[in-house]
Amino acid sequence: MTETTASSSGRVRTRFAPSPTGFIHLGNIRSALYPWAFARATGGDFILRIEDTDLERSTQAAVDVIIEGMKWLGLDHDEGPFYQMQRMDRYKAVLADLQAAGHVYPCYMSVAELDALREKQMAAKEKPRYDGTWRPEDGKTLPPVPAGVLPVLRFKNPQGGVVAWDDKVKGRIEIRNDELDDLVIARPDGTPTYNFCVVVDDIDMAITHVIRGDDHVNNTPRQINIFRALGKEPPVYAHLPTVLNEQGEKMSKRNGAKPVTQYRDEGYLPDAMVNYLARLGWSHGDDEIFSRAQFLEWFNLDHLGRSAAQFDEAKLRWVNAQHLKAMSDDALAALVAPQLQQRGVPEQVLADGRLVRICALFKDRCDTTVALAQWAQVFYGDVTPVEAERAQHVTEAIAPALDALADALSACEWDKASISAAFKQVLASQGLKMPQLAMPARVLTVGTAHTPSVDAVLELVGREKVVARLRNR
């Protein structure tokens, strides 16, 4: 990709540009959700760019989690992934152009000299910054070039005036150029630095809107000045407030944040995650639960929040439960079936048609597909009753009624109505109330006393297993 591919059609083009130096978590992925949503809402393009120039910390495993997590959440990209390490020749060519135009100069100040300068400035209560020793100016004599020292390249930041932009989240931001020192844009080995690469990428990829975390606000004035030195206008910026964890700290791997893909493995639904993440910094009135289509219909940059959002796992589980209840039983069964196979239930056993009905019966009491799979597993394997519940409900006193129920269920038609009638017949003959018989029947047949309607549950367990479990107690 070269600069000549940049489009000026007015079409919205956004990007997500993660650094693969750690597994992507929910705070990171929200910075992908909004640019993706804005591109989709406006009929634009969404580009994925991997900023992998930190060779020591970047890993392929982290790249895989980025791509896997975005695929799971349905955040599809139109172009990319582009990798910065594969674009080094392009960066160096633009760097040479900037140097030829007088916007870049070599600086031979050593790290030790720079450290000493900063210490002196801090002792004088000044802001630590490069002092322009090697910046060429008319009439200025530069120090002699030290032998055997490879220079860094610094960008000649404009002097005087302000760099300003109208941020779509934070409003008007103005920074005095005198606050900014001359940024290192290439290391001694010639490798370009982050702020420079980002600008070249955004130009080449014709990015119109940069929607990213507010930890980048300090980079923005520097990047705007580099854009202008290259003769380009910067994109529109929207800097998103931080996502905090449940303890009120910035969400990070160090602070216990989970990789995005772990939520998939824990049974969360991608549409529920999109719904929850969308509300971490954006709102549409008081709407809490909405579909992906509604989100894209409503989304714009004008309703992004200005204050930090706090992650709340209980709220996420609630949102997931609402989406789970609203899903079709067939779609849920398709998600639960692979989980049951991982738990050792053979595929051919699952082909008996019961799973859709099991999902229908239990989805109202589950908040993840993993919880639903745990319930469903009861219907396909052996059951070990909860010991405390067995002791409480399966007593000597109820034994005759359980035998009578096993006899009645052996002989009746196997449907809900007939099972219900068998229960009523035994209750009448034994002089019992429904909970006195239903509770032990549930404990023995599915392992716990708390389930949906006992006739619906027993019908799905199957006559043979029900009768055997009632007798072999």
Q: Under the CATH scheme, which architecture of the largest domain would be assigned? A: 3-Layer(aba) Sandwich
CATH class of the largest domain: Alpha Beta
Radius of gyration: 32 Å
What's the domain count? 4
Query: CATH topology of the largest domain, what is it called?
Result: Rossmann fold
| Spatial strand arrangement across the major sheet | 1-2-3
- Strand fraction: 5-15%
Number of helices: 20
Arithmetic mean pLDDT: 93
Main sheet, how many strands, which sense, barrel?
3 strands, parallel
Name given to the CATH homologous superfamily of the largest domain = HUPs
Low-confidence stretches: 1-7
The 3D shape can be described as elongated
Q: What oligomeric state do these chains adopt?
A: single chain
C-alpha end-to-end distance: 72 Å
Helix content, binned percent: 40-55%
Counted beta strands: 12
Organism: Acidovorax kalamii
GO molecular function: ATP binding; glutamate-tRNA ligase activity; tRNA binding; zinc ion binding
Keywords: Aminoacyl-tRNA synthetase, ATP-binding, Cytoplasm, Ligase, Nucleotide-binding, Protein biosynthesis
Main location: cytoplasm
